[in-house]
Amino acid sequence: MATATKKTAAPKKSATPVKKAAVKSASPKSSESNGSVGKDSMLLEFFEDELKDIYWAEKHLVKTLPKMRKAATSEKLKQAFEDHLEVTQTHVSRLEQVFELMGKKAQAKKCDAMAGITEEGAGIIEETEKGTATRDVGLILAAQKVEHYEIATYGGLAQLARTLGRDDVAEILETTLGEEKEADVLLTDIAENDINYEASREKE
Hints:
Elements: H1 2-34, H2 42-71, H3 75-101, H4 112-127, H5 133-163, H6 167-200
């Protein structure tokens, strides 16, 4: 009887280590899927550096959009620039929120790409005649280059934020991404429904 009791107890002891081993093997997988990255991560450093870049770009646009509005002829285009100025100011505030969530001070680093695009826009104003639809065509083209740059930047940053395990940051960036896409569609509509046709009829 005593011998039989020992034989039945043996399987219970051998089953316990199996359960522990299963828990240990599952642990690394859960941490990988969580996407958490250490503070010394090169990717995290790159992400924060790119945030400074787009932060500068948005603040620069706050200064540039009023000039584009003033140069525009079409009332629809003027209104689009005015409305997007308000949206851009919100984008600046959102980025400051992102910096805060990341535990960093909001800092701007000159964005050479945005500086170049806006400089090109200034050149269009100088090279086209005031009060013409042709100038408006040029302004729309410059503005859409801005939007496409921002769409690429916010889209990439949102994905990186999720890779870094910062879904909270990704959601903020994706909200701005959606608004940049809407602005691009609006500019296309203004061009196709009005300005492009008018410009095609203008003569030197």
